[in-house]
Amino acid sequence: MPARDSIHETVKEAVIKDGWEITDDPYVISYGERFLFVDLGASGFIGVRQGNKHIAIEIKQFRGQSQVADLEQAIGQYTLYRLLLNQVDPERDLYLAVSEATYSDIFTEPIGKLAIAQLPLKLIIVDLEKKEVSQWIPSRPIEKSSNR
Fold first, then answer.
1. Which 3 state secondary structure label does DSSP give 114?
2. How many CA within 13 A on the CB side of residue 47?
3. d(CA 79, CA 67)
4. Could you tell me which of 126, 130, 32, 119 has the C-alpha nearest to residue 84?
5. Strands of 132-137's sheet, edge to edge?
6. Which pLDDT score, from 0 to 100, does residue 102 have?
7. Are the C-beta atoms of 148 and 39 separated by less than 8 Å?
8. How many C-beta atoms surround the C-beta of residue 6 within 10 A?
9. All residues at 6 or more sequence positions from 54 whose CB lies less than 8 Å from its CB, including other chains
10. Chain-centre distance of CA 77, in angstroms?
């Protein structure tokens, strides 16, 4: 199993605060003879008719010497996980979780905007100081209840 990013626990706490239940840490994808490890699996209730929504979350910190190289690596991993999930768990959406700083540094630039729009890349933006989700791209997949 790969090493966790240093922001793993903070992102996990933020996702829980946002109303999600962590079901897997890590979420294991088994395909053929291979096992791949997405950082988190989570579920949330979206209504009586629709039941639970299931997501997988890959956490990335972008701490390398080049944010473009970090983006390349993250997109490759995200794309592979998405391909595999489409085969083994097609109802589960995949998200890439990043800090607000990482989002501001690379995903607001033209190259980051292109990745979000064209892949499409789903993001969870986390305020690391508050340990809260500050933004979902696209918008949050479940409605937050008023008592949370």
1. helix
2. 5
3. 18
4. 32
5. 21-24, 40-45, 52-59, 93-99, 123-127, 132-137
6. 96
7. no
8. 11
9. 23, 41, 42, 43, 89, 91, 92, 93
10. 12
Question: How far apart (Å, rounded) are the C-alpha atoms in residues 130 and 79?
Answer: 29
pTM: 0.90
Residue ranges in the chain whose pLDDT is less than 50: 146-148
Cα separation, 99 vs 7, in Å, equals 8
Q: Which pLDDT score, from 0 to 100, does residue 3 have?
A: 77
User: What mean pLDDT, rounded, does the chain reach?
Assistant: 91
Token duo for residue 32:
């053929």
Asked if 10 contacts 133 with a C-beta cutoff of 8 angstroms, the reply is: no
Q: Which residue, chain included where needed, has tokens 């390398």?
A: 64
Give the integer Cα–Cα distance in Å for 113 and 125.
14
CA trace torsion 41, 109, 6, 128 (10° rounding): -80
pLDDT of residue 52: 84
Listed in sequence order, the residues at least 6 apart from 96 whose beta carbon sits closer than 8 Å to its beta carbon are 57, 58, 59, 60, 74, 78, 121, 122, 123, 124
